[in-house]
Specification:
With about 140 residues, this protein is mainly β. It folds into two domains: about 50 residues, no CATH class; about 80 residues, OB fold (Dihydrolipoamide Acetyltransferase, E2P), CATH 2.40.50. The two termini are about 30 Å apart.
């Protein structure tokens, strides 16, 4: 039986234009694309997406598609205190993308024995409560 979703503390970002200036990120995730913002002035490619460049403080940013594959740098397993929609244990990994970006993500749809530093992973869409989405990765087979 599925557990009801409790709204006291919402662990998932609001994803509508009236609630989040970075809402296009979630629209792209729904389309199966991993994106971030790129500064038009200095070229910085920050993760996560920003509304202001952390390098030059410009607000002239554009959406840039990210590589769909990466390599696990390191990982850890969390076995308690997770929000609804996450199975136990949940694997969190630092993932290195070929464009030089390192990001933190969950690893889904993978056996614990497959997860190791250096393993190749691919981007997937994780569906979470209230019709929202989050980026995730799985071991590439």
């Amino acid at each position: 039986m599925e557990q009801p979703y409790i709204h006291i503390l919402d662990p998932y970002p609001q994803q509508a234009p009236e609630q989040n200036r970075l809402h296009p990120f979630y629209d792209f995730v729904r389309e199966g694309k991993l994106t971030t913002t790129r500064c038009k002035k200095c070229g910085t490619l920050p993760w996560p997406p920003r509304v202001v460049c952390p390098q030059c403080m410009s607000d002239e940013l554009e959406w840039a598609e990210m590589p769909r594959e990466g390599t696990i740098y390191t990982f850890t397993a969390q076995e308690a205190g997770l929000p609804p929609g996450y199975a136990l244990p949940t694997i969190f990994a630092l993932i290195d993308l070929p464009n030089g970006v390192r990001l933190l993500s969950v690893i889904e749809e993978s056996e614990l024995s497959e997860i190791k530093s250096g393993a190749t992973v691919e981007f997937i869409v994780k569906h979470v409560p209230n019709d929202r989405v989050m980026p995730a990765f799985r071991i590439k087979r």
